[in-house]
Amino acid sequence: MLAAVGFPLAELFDGKIAGAFGLESALTSTGASPSVLNGGLDKIEPDYWVICVCLAALAELANSEAKEAAGKQYTAGDCAFDPLKLMPEDKQGKMEMLTKEIKHGRLSMMAVLGYVVQEALYSAPVTAETPFFFQPIF
Predict the structure, then answer these.
(1) Is the pTM of this model over 0.85?
(2) Of 43, 83, 102, 116, which residue has the fewest beta carbons closer than 10 angstroms?
(3) Tell me, what DSSP letter sits at residue 116?
(4) How many CA within 13 A on the CB side of residue 8?
(5) Backbone angles phi, psi at 35, to 5 degrees
(6) Are the CB atoms for 25 and 18 separated by under 8 Å?
């Protein structure tokens, strides 16, 4: 779900943040976020991909351990990460919250897919194609 927010934010702020640190922007020549369809993934350091894969492996390992520890009480996708204590305690409320999380996650994946396809078709950043979402009205 964070990717649906991070994708356009990267287009808005990557150049400014990279410039502040004296680095080259990771955006494509059109100002779009790097992706398989847009290109630009060659600008991303291989070390970054190694770190991403290692973090994903650690998350999967922790989830596997949680699944073994919970046994038959395990619920798919429940990693017991709730620092704000938003998950209801009762079983019905918990299942409703997990369903909402799945639905929001799927909607977010479709949003990111829409960003990438739009940028590939129009060769312009999503923030430039739909500026009314990303710039102040006044």
Answers:
(1) no
(2) 83
(3) H
(4) 20
(5) -160, 175
(6) yes
Per-residue pLDDT of 72-125, as tens digits, reads 888 777 777 788 988 898 989 988 998 999 999 999 999 999 999 999 999 999
118 — phi, psi (to 5°)? -60, -45
For residue 35, what are the β-bridge partners?
A: 39
Q: Which residues contact 125 (CB under 8 A, 6 or more apart)?
A: 11, 27, 30, 31, 32, 33, 119
Query: Which residues, 6+ apart, have CB-to-CB distance to 118 below 8 Å?
Result: 126, 129
Q: How far apart are CA 67 and CA 75, in angstroms?
A: 8
Q: Model confidence over 28-64: pLDDT tens digits?
A: 888 899 988 888 898 898 999 999 999 999 989 988 8
Whether 135 contacts 126, CB under 8 Å: no
